[in-house]
Each structure stands twice: as C-alpha cells, then as structure tokens.
C-alpha cells in the first residue's frame, strides 16, 4: 500500500463554513521533499497548501507554503490558517505568551493572538514593512490588463507595486461595478511579467457590498497557479500601506477588506497600520477561520 500523509482543511478569513479561502495543512511533513510538496499542492489545487516541519530553536514551527505552481516565501491566509490550527485545533503552547513565531522562507514571522474565556478571539500576523516599488504611469496599459476603461481607474491615485514580502500591483478602481466586471488579460500579463515580476494583481475600490467594510478587491495570480484568489492576506498588507501612504483611509484601528464575493466565497480580511514618528512601524493582517474537516493523500514517489 502506498504511503500517505494526513491533512486538515481550514477556511480562512471567514467565520462561516464554505466561505473564505480554503487551506490544506500537512503536519509532520519533515520527510517530504520540495518536489513532493509541490506535487501534492498541485493535486489539491487550492490557492496554497502548508507543510509543517521542525523549526529552528527560536520559532514555534516551520512552514513551507506552496501554490499549485510554486513555493512562496510567505503568504497571508496560510499564516493565519496555520496559526488557528496550531492554537485552537492542536492546542500548542507557544514559547511566548500571546505570540506565535512561525519560521518561513522569508524569515521568522510574528503572529499575535488573544484569548477570551479560553477561546482564541483574534489572530493578527505582522507582515514585513512595505517597499513602494514601480509605478505604472501608463494607465491605458493597466486598463487593458484588467479589461476595463481607462476612466474606471482612479485619476488621483497611482497604479503601483507595493511589497510586504510579496510584490503586488495595486490598482485603484472608481466603482464596485467596474471591479465586479473586470477580467485579467492573461496574454498581456505574461508580457508584463517578462519585464518585472509581481506575485499578483490586486484591484480594489472603496465602494463595498457591506457598508461596514473599507475596501472591495479581487486578486489574480495565474502564473503561480491561482487564477483568482478568494482571500489574499499577503496582498492586504500592501493594500493597507497603499491606503495609508496616499491618505485614502485611517488604518490606526482594524478595518475590513472584502474579497471573494465574485467567486461565491465571501471573505473578510482585517488590516491595521501602526506608526512611529510619522512612518509605518507595523503592518498587521488577520481574520477568522473555520475548521472544515480532514483527509489523507498519497505521498508522491
């Protein structure tokens, strides 16, 4: 009989089952090679799958994160989902009170959490400080990239790559309707990727379906095996920094970005910015999770 490995299935960035972004977590994956992990991630075909391994001396656990197409240095929904699994489902005792330290390819990442009456009430990951990178001044090109009219792009704000561990092209859109109707031009995206790499395209608007939410967004990353993502934590950190940098919103308190509605998987991503002496000092992203079930899969030879 073939060797198998068990996994847990978590819906991330939602408090309702069958919402958010599904995540497969494989515990005790020390014996798996990178090629085996990639094959398993491709077989499951989720946005990301996580493989947990023994950490260094400082961290609580080591994570390897794979899309169906490649390994990522860090990612949001795998970090939040793994933290939920470790704290609530597995019940580990972190080395520091109210803080998990997760070893990822980008380095050790801090995750803050709170407990109320013995239950996990809040999980927030601390993302790397932002790098504001290339600005796409040709808005006609950007409009063609997502198949909308140039007038649908906000005139007063730039289309710019922002990086909090993964670089995303942030595109500000005027209306909810335009975001709902946009479509990525894969051929043009491939041409752009020949010139500069981005993890994905993050188009957003300040018009939302839920009036209590701050933003409505969609994220596309077909080159890494994710045609469209239901919820992207690693893109909401850059989005929060973008909103702060261009004075579009006050993020000193937790705000919610909605995503995944067009895919039938409503997601709510919490984001917050802390400042010191007028500069961003912390980028926090988090959300709720639901444990959906478990399974077992063959280990590739």
Automatic annotation (TrEMBL):
GO terms for molecular function: isomerase activity. It comes from the Bacteria. GO terms for cellular component: cytoplasm. InterPro entries: Phenazine_PhzF-like. It holds the Pfam family PhzC-PhzF. The active site is at residue 48. Belongs to the PhzF family. This is Phenazine biosynthesis protein PhzF family. It comes from Marivirga tractuosa (strain ATCC 23168 / DSM 4126 / NBRC 15989 / NCIMB 1408 / VKM B-1430 / H-43) (Microscilla tractuosa).
